[in-house]
Amino acid sequence: MCCLAAIAAIISPRLVIVLWWLLDTARWSAVFDNLIVPVLGFVFLPWTTLAYVYFAPTGLGGLAPIVIVVAVLIDAGTYGGGVFGNRRRDQRSWR
Fold it and tell me: Where are the domains of the chain?
């Protein structure tokens, strides 16, 4: 069950990116000039990419910077969270 939740957490923002891009190509074209940045966002920072695409056409004022920073922290947590869990697991195996 835990593996299914992890897989869903990894796939869901990327699935939303693909569906949103297919349904609203004009918005993505207005936000990004080339294909490199959204592809890198798809691979490395999917939550940040979603937040940026949502707020960029209307401007990045108000609550947008806070939401984008939270998205960056969520993306960083998906990469860094496993490091701490594995460190604890390694320490227990030495005892």
Answer: 2-94
